[in-house]
Design a protein that fits this description.
Oligomer: single chain
GO cellular component, one term: nucleus
Catalytic activity: L-threonyl-[protein] + ATP = O-phospho-L-threonyl-[protein] + ADP + H(+); L-seryl-[protein] + ATP = O-phospho-L-seryl-[protein] + ADP + H(+)
Helix content: 25-40%
Radius of gyration: 24 Å
Structural class: alpha+beta
Number of domains: 2
Enzyme class: transferase
EC number: 2.7.11.1
Protein name: non-specific serine/threonine protein kinase
Order of helices and strands: HEEEEHEEHHEEHEEEEHHHHH
Strand order of the largest sheet: 1-2-3-4-6-5
Amino acid sequence: MSALLWPRSNTILGSYHLALRRLYTANCLSSSHRFIPSHRDDIEDVEDYHPGGLHPISLGDTFSQKRYKVLHKLGCGGSSTTWLARNPNGQLISLKVMRADMSSKPFDKIPEIDVSGKLSDYIRRTSAPARANIQVLDDHFTVSGPNGTHLCLVTPLAGPSIVSVLHGRICYGRIEGSVRFRKDIARKTSNQIARRLALMHSAGVVHGDLTSSNILFKIKPHVAMWRDEEVALHFGKPKAEKVLTVDESSPAPHAPLRLVAPIDDSALPLSIFQPDDILITDFGQSFSITHPPADYTPATVMHYLSESPEAYFDGRVGPASDIWSLACLLFEIRAGYPLFGDFFGSSGAVLANMPWWSAFESRHLFFDEEGRRKPRLGEDIGETSIKGKLELIGVNGSPPPRAGNGPIMEPFRKKMDAQEIYLFTDLLEKMLRFNGEERPTIDEVISHPWFAFD
């Protein structure tokens, strides 16, 4: 490009960005937004920073009388932000800061605190060798700020989630050709999850949100003692962008001056975490089996991908609901993709021939009154069973887009053994009975021969 054209090119580019900003501003003004939206899809919605909402946090901030110092961001959502911080002993920890309007209940009414305490007490009383695989709290406290008082939860630092290792941050919708764990890794991971869920049920606790995003791999012990330089080397330096308001005023005090992007845990090398050792996390939807809260609302994330029929229709969750979710999780671990992600195309297609058939108001869009699926334009609607789904693993697809953590993954197009397909089909079909009373208990699940198949 000539020197004469370069300034004009810069002018055009500058005009383009100015036009984009004006368009954003117009949209925000028309919808009563205070902030101009971020271009990133991996950070929290800046509109969640308001009285009653998220607490504004900046890198270097300290909490609990300067006992915890923020180094990086681990994750975010509408209900909280989670940060990599350092505790007084120099160890890296996870610091989760809740919204103010979700922090107002007494501590014994907050599941993350109450359930964590119940599980810790049960493990201590029974000498169960499971504490290392259930993420209980190290500390909790509150912090006051411009948006209210916020509950803060401290847990040991953990590694990436199952969903991050398998799929990266943009995970669902990827079917054939997905990476999947090696058979022995999948079996060991599944066994650990099932046995830790058995411990929770024995302790009288329902998890309520058992998904691949809530199962984390443990980090190797030395990682927790990394110096700041090592954190930057392995996790990358924090990336932040300036918070812009529609009226060009300062975002403070209710919002931070800059939004920080979280660590991409899907890119963490195998040398950092332990692929055969997991943690069950996130007890925000958990409760006592004998004393469920009167105002309980089932988890809504990803809905039909792991939510049981009774939770979807009746708002009821119990041990049998955990069994349904566990079945979906076991399939995803072994297959490399969600059972219901594209199996039926939508939540509507999952609901035929269920006890709730008459409550399924949009059933006419997907099925005739005999429960047969209607074809959609250009779609082949051949019936597919769980056994059929397992038989297709490793048959089709294209090579995975990234090498990932190759040593713990199955070779491309490696099919499942016929005997394993038989056993796994039997297990999943029992766990996915529409009527929760017909599903096996967690003790019956872990005694199934699939877990011992070599």
